[in-house]
Specification:
This protein is α/β, with parallel strands linked by helices. The chain has helices at 9-20, 29-47, 85-88, 103-118, 142-149, 198-210, and strands at residues 52-56, 59-66, 71-76, 92-94, 97-99, 126-131, 154-157.
Length: 223
């Protein structure tokens, strides 16, 4: 594969603004669908072909394939930012810093991936998968990602780099737990000693859980 030309920075920034300006909180299926439309249109303009639209449990994922996949470019277009965040944090580029909801994680990376593939003179073996539920833990797209990655020599995720611009080669696993704390009612003034305060116990649990992480081995626990 050979790169024909460097992407024009102004065009890349304009495309990032287009994606950032379409808010896409993971929990809003209509917003994610609108965002998928914007990503699909951008990709079709750059790549000359429309993506396959894959809807699972109401969530929209996009895939471009150029022959049998050898390298997978993986990204997502959903964000953690609620609708209306643009009013508080509009898209800006000031003093070399780009800001806007979802620009860091990971709409800039999506645009970079599309422009990178568009610059290739031969795209054979490239697959691009842009999912719509990553911020939820990929509940509907995990199997799709795993299936697409089978047989690939490499999978590249163009999220923001690690410290110093280092390439990320692995990421932590994720486990989610719900803890229920049950107390016992008692009169707060006359006989508080007969009660069990669930709020106080929950506070103790939160502190204990926060101490489970161990930075020396790279683990973190967030209550």
């Amino acid at each position: 594969m050979r790169v024909q030309a460097d992407a024009d920075l102004d065009l890349v920034l304009a495309d990032i603004e287009t994606l950032v300006s379409c808010e896409s909180p993971s929990g809003d299926l209509e917003a994610v669908s609108r965002s998928a439309d914007v990503v699909a249109a951008l990709g079709e303009r750059l790549l000359g072909v429309a993506p396959e639209r894959i809807v699972i449990d109401g969530r929209t994922h996009l895939r471009w394939r150029f022959g049998d996949p050898v390298v997978l470019l993986l990204g997502h277009h959903d964000t953690v930012w609620p609708l209306g965040s643009l009013r508080r944090l509009p898209f800006t580029v000031e003093d070399g810093v780009l800001r806007g909801p979802g620009c860091f994680d990971m709409k800039t990376g999506v645009v970079m991936a599309l422009h990178a593939v568009a610059a290739l003179s031969d795209r054979t073996g490239i697959s691009i998968l842009i999912t719509g539920d990553e911020e939820l833990g990929s509940p509907s797209s995990r199997a799709l990602i795993e299936q697409e990655a089978i047989g690939c020599a490499a999978t590249l995720v163009l999220e923001a780099s690690a410290d110093g611009g280092a390439v990320k080669i692995a990421r932590k696993g994720v486990s989610l737990y719900r803890v229920r704390v049950t107390g016992r009612a008692a009169h707060a003034g006359l006989e508080p000693e007969r009660g069990v305060n669930a709020a106080v116990e929950a506070a103790h649990l939160v502190l204990a859980i926060a101490r489970l992480g161990d930075r020396s081995v790279g683990t973190s626990v967030t209550p």
